[in-house]
Amino acid sequence: MDSLKNIPALKSKWLSACASMVASWMLRFLLLAFPGFFKRWLSDPMTLQIEEYHGMSSRNKFFDALELYLQSKISPSTRLLKIAQTRKDTSFGIHFSDNQEFDDVYEEIQLKWKFISISKESSHTTLASKKKHYFELSFDFKHKEMVMNSYLPYVLERFKAMKDERKLVKLHTLVRLDPNKVKWDAINLEHPATFGTLAMDSELKRSVLEDLDKFVKRKEFYQRVGRAWKRGYLLYGPPGTGKSSLVAAIANYLKFDIYDLQLTHLKSDMELRRAMVATTNKSILVIEDIDCSQAELQDRKYGKGIKKNESEGNQITLSGLLNFTDGLWSNCGEERIIVFTTNHKSKLDPALLRSGRMDMHIHMSYCSYEGFKTLTSNYLGICGHHPLFEKIEILLQNTKVTPAQVTEALMKSEDVEVSLQGLITMLKENRYKGKDEYRDEDEENQLTYFI
Ligand SMILES: Nc1ncnc2c1ncn2[C@@H]1O[C@H](COP(=O)(O)OP(=O)(O)OP(=O)(O)O)[C@@H](O)[C@H]1O
Ligand SMILES: [Mg+2]
């Protein structure tokens, strides 16, 4: 009788067991049938956006780092790659297509990158800037700390290592996008100059190389003495003596990018500051022909030969530049080299030559016999002696020709005899020519150290 009484209780137990079994089957079925939906439902996504530019015109350096880093994450099964070669580049570059996705794994965290390109609505934009580009990084919110503090620094480290491996050196120049906006535009530096190919006094070359080596090794020293980790060089000498080639040789030697700062492209000290702040560490800021820039800036300031509306708004000054290079700018980065070049050191503002401003004054001068031998080894492949060398050595002692003039003569023929004879004729023609406007500087020391 008792067991009959328990029948309803047993029945409800049985029913609830059946119901929970059906529910678990259904859940299993749904999980198997729609895994994506459940994964999304269970996770708590977080997204970071990395835009190409931040502010008005400053390029986002992390965006540039991603462009290289993510090339290593392109899936081998990718069926669409955009290849481009700009007019100025000699090699092909991979460009990402809109909505291209990249998977990455870091410390077992799944990360998803996406490249996005959207049209901008502005009347002032150039063809290249009509689009806004950015990367999106998606991951689970619970990994936020790990991504911010560990993964992003890791991406930067990888980028630096990849850049060093590829030995990419960039040349950055200023381009004006609209009346109020300038930005740095970069191309690969294809300048072949190295210290080996430069016709330069060997003692001077050795001193410059030693100075560069010492500079890059002295991080702790600069920190200890509380100085900004920067070095300034003034390169001076007649046109065609290798000042620009020396800048390229330094960049190739240290693998530092070059920022070619054309002061006359800028309208105000504010623009100058923005452009300088946008330069990266391990870079060379070059201001070529500083005497000409200085003169033009003076003209603009006082309106000499310049229409009123052209001079308006141009408040860029040499002292503004020097204060900034000596002060805040040099302190907000590391391993910065600043180079001024000029044909006429005597025409420079004394403020620029003041002791401590430029660490080294390097005089690039006319072609010596030693320089000539470097050039014949490069251009004609002559490593030893040649019967015509003695004549050339005597001629070079009395003739002021630049290495550029010598290379021009050496390139005229592939026949060594013809080339050297052509050079002898050129040297004879130039032997007693005209007044030397660079004589004062030529009599100075080749190298002046300040620190
Ligand atoms: N010292 C040098 N060693 C090797 N090649 C040189 C040297 N000087 C000049 N040349 C050759 O002449 C060309 C012009 O030289 P470069 O532009 O470096 O001279 P520069 O001193 O910067 O002249 P400028 O004052 O006109 O700017 C170089 O591309 C190179 O081929
Ligand atoms: Mg030059």
From TrEMBL:
SMART domains: AAA. Keywords: ATP-binding, Hydrolase, Magnesium, Nucleotide-binding. Its cofactor is Mg(2+). PANTHER family: BCS1 AAA-TYPE ATPASE. It comes from Rubus argutus. Belongs to the AAA ATPase family. BCS1 subfamily. SUPFAM superfamilies: P-loop containing nucleoside triphosphate hydrolases (SSF52540). The keyword Isomerase does not apply. One of its GO terms (molecular function) is ATP binding. Pfam families: AAA, AAA_assoc, AAA_lid_At3g28540. InterPro entries: AAA+_ATPase, AAA_N_dom, At3g28540-like_C, ATPase_AAA_core, ATPase_AAA_CS, Mitochondrial_chaperone_BCS1, P-loop_NTPase. It catalyses: ATP + H2O = ADP + phosphate + H(+). Residues 229-368 form the AAA+ ATPase domain. The lineage of its organism: Eukaryota, Viridiplantae, Streptophyta, Embryophyta, Tracheophyta. It comes from the Eukaryota. The keyword Nucleotide-binding applies. This is AAA+ ATPase domain-containing protein. GO terms for biological process: response to stress.
